[in-house]
Every structure is written in structure tokens, then in C-alpha cells.
What does this fold into?
Amino acid sequence: MLLLNQWLYDAPEYSFEPLFSVSKDLCVATKYSKSTEKKLLVRSPEIERAIISTVKKGVQRDDWEGILFILGTGLLPKFQGIMISITDRQGIKNEVNENIKNIQSNYNKFARWGDGLDYHIGDLSHAMFQFEAYREPKKRYLSLAQQLFSSFEPPVLKSQVYLYVLPWYADSVGPSGVRQSLKELKKEIAYIIGGTQVVA
It folds into this structure.
């Protein structure tokens, strides 16, 4: 873990910001969806700026493959990863992934950290606030919510939660010292951390 954290700390161009907009007592701000009245957790302005900046810089480079995200607690170099996610540059059908298109206004998807269902903030909010939707809340997000929050109403964190954001390029080297694809990197980091949730 120490070697991984050193690699995370030494990696070029990473961002490391609080995931949520919180008060001094770690109560997370909430909002309501304009179209559906769903109650949603609010991302911090810092992490929104970091994700937007990472995507906008990335799409200008031909060698950019996407983004590695690690959610966790504690500051670097004592960061404890809890969940790993990646966002690829290229979509299944499109040259540019729908999750990162129009990133400055695409808050429903927002590089996989959007407010919609099947996106991390939306699914975590669904698990916590149990609003009506086309499906039941996903169990892994309820488990994540229980791990992060001491209470759901109001939503109070056990400790500050951070999101590590790393752009990935064709020549980027993983913790093992070899060139890896983004998917290979996700698997390696999950193996190092152990017991971590790995999601798309």
C-alpha cells in the first residue's frame, strides 16, 4: 500500500480533491433534480473543476486514453482507497465516450460521476435516499454508503472523502513499472489494495 501511495503521489498531472460539498461537521450538501425531484448528494466545486479540466486537456491529445479514479479517505501519502473506477476516452459506438461529451454541462453522466442512475453520485444517492426509480437501489452502493456515512438523514460522513483523478496516456506506466492499458491498471490497483470495489 505504501508503494502504491507513493506511485499515486508521484504520478504526473493528478488531481486530489474532496468528492462532496460538505460543512465543517462533514454534513454533505444535497439538491433536488429539476426534472424528477430526486434527492441527490452534491459534488464539491473543486472536484467538478478537476474533472472538467482533466477531460478538456485530455481530448486535445491523441495519446490520451481516459481517466483513473480512486475514491477513498485520508490524505496522500496515507490515502486509503475504497472504490476504483475508470472512464475511457472512446465509447463503444463513438470516438468520444458519451460520459465525457460536453463535460461542462453533462452533469447527469459527468465522466461516470454524474447525478443520473447508473452513475456513481446518482446510484449512491439512490441507495441512501431510496427515491422511486425504474429499478431498486444497487446493493454495492448501499454497502458503499454504509462505509462512508455515519447517518443518511442528514447525510454525514464518517471522515472526509477524497477522489483521486489521474489522466492516462498511451505511454503511462503503472505501479509495477510497465506500460498498461487503463483496464489493466484498474485490475492491478484493485489487486494491490485488496477488497476494494471495482466498478466501470
In short: The longest strand covers residues 64-73. The mean pLDDT is 93.
